[in-house]
């Protein structure tokens, strides 16, 4: 099956980077760190001079992920270089995390207020809803640099110069140069509101890895495991992020969101039992198509063997699992803790939707509206000259197949596409033309 819209070619700079890294490897210029858990943990200990990783639970998902990458991901030189770097970064930050908690016991002692959590599939409008809420300074929200670099190095002091925004900015700049489409699919910047995905990455947990690498055995494994330890560590990291801002005693609730929550609602609610959940729903054919496009855009950087039809099949199944698990867990959540909104309604009148949300949260919306309107205007500017384009057919899928897979879900939330309204023309008498 061939789509009318061809898949974008991989940026030439990726090929240049692969060639350069292969040359440096042949010359033994780069450190030879194998993709091996024991070697990586030993390197991280040596680099930091620290030894305590905290709860060793995370080593098992990391081991499964590394094994899956080695067996299934078909990494190119750039992909291998990036994978080693990512694992070493996580391991160093796990060591730094325990350093901070061991030397500042007050960090973990401060409780978290019940958070407000946006829940929806990948590419369902969770980012827009999250950023509207983040525009309200009565909430705390993660910023991009804190998601990418959640743990400051030893020696850091709250309120003093923080090198992490510049570090995150350099990383973002590199990603955008390697693949400019990333900026179009998910515009962001070092201080922009961002999801807490990086806090789950600290436990080697979640769909983020499946969106980057072809690792189906890892995905199947975590689908059968209890996510509660990963969410407990996420809550600890939220306290550390708050302390690093110099707001250790803030009682403002966090606004959280990441599509991983769709799969892990029981664990999420085990850790945050009083959370308020905002579920967002979108036409599943749009969710699947946009997800496949995002995954293709990332996977082609790390592997020369990315298969769009495999991506289509895998993310159709993954989206189905997200929705099935969400539906199963949602029914057990008390009505006073949840509300449902539609992507379509956000497009038509976001302000009316947010008024409903704030009524549900029992918070006055008026103080938040100016910040929300500024965000909407900025977002319009970001998207004025660029649009994320994709087609299901590019991934071996079609609308009938996808919609039949999600018929019950689409009916439950009225997600079927609305028929186009017939064009109405008014005819004006006299010499003037008919006006559209």
UniProtKB/TrEMBL annotation:
Source organism: Novosphingobium beihaiensis
Protein's UniProt name: Sulfotransferase
Pfam families: Sulfotransfer_3
UniProt xrefs under PANTHER family: OMEGA-HYDROXY-BETA-DIHYDROMENAQUINONE-9 SULFOTRANSFERASE STF3, PAPS-DEPENDENT SULFOTRANSFERASE STF3
């Amino acid at each position: 099956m061939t789509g009318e819209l061809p898949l974008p070619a991989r940026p030439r700079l990726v090929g240049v980077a692969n060639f350069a890294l292969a040359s440096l490897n042949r010359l033994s210029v780069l450190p030879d760190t194998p993709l091996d858990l024991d070697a990586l943990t030993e390197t991280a200990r040596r680099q930091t001079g620290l030894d305590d990783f905290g709860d060793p639970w995370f080593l098992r998902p990391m081991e499964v992920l590394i094994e899956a990458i080695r067996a299934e991901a078909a990494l190119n030189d750039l992909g291998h270089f990036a994978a080693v770097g990512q694992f070493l970064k996580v391991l160093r930050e796990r060591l730094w995390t325990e350093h901070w908690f061991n030397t500042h016991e007050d960090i973990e002692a401060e409780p978290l207020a019940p958070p407000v959590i946006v829940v929806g599939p990948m590419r369902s409008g969770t980012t827009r809803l999250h950023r509207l809420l983040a525009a309200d300074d009565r909430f705390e929200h993660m910023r991009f640099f804190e998601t990418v670099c959640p743990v400051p190095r030893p020696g850091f002091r709250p309120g003093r110069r923080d090198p992490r925004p510049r570090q995150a900015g350099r990383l973002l700049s590199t990603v955008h140069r390697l693949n400019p489409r990333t900026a179009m699919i998910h515009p962001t910047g070092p201080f922009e509101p961002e999801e807490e995905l990086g806090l789950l990455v600290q436990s080697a947990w979640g769909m983020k890895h499946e969106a980057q690498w072809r690792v189906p055995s890892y995905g199947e494994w975590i689908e059968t495991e209890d996510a509660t330890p990963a969410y407990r560590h996420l809550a600890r990291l939220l306290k550390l992020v708050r302390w690093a801002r110099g707001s250790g005693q803030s009682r403002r609730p966090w606004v959280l969101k990441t599509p991983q929550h769709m799969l892990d609602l029981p664990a999420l609610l085990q850790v945050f039992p009083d959370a308020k959940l905002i579920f967002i729903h979108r036409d599943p054919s749009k969710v699947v198509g946009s997800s496949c496009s995002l995954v293709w855009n990332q996977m082609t950087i790390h592997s020369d063997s990315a298969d769009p039809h495999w991506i289509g099949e895998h993310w159709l199944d993954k989206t189905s699992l997200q929705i099935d698990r969400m539906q199963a867990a949602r029914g057990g959540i008390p009505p006073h803790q949840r509300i449902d909104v539609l992507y379509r309604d956000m497009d038509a009148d976001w302000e009316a939707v947010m008024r409903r949300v704030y009524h549900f949260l029992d918070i006055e919306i008026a103080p938040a509206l100016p910040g929300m309107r500024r965000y909407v205007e900025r977002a319009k500017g970001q998207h004025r000259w660029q649009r994320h384009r994709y087609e299901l057919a590019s991934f071996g899928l079609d609308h009938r197949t996808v919609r039949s897979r999600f018929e019950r879900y689409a009916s439950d939330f009225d997600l079927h596409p609305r028929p186009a309204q017939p064009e109405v023309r008014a005819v004006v008498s006299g010499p003037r033309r008919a006006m559209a």
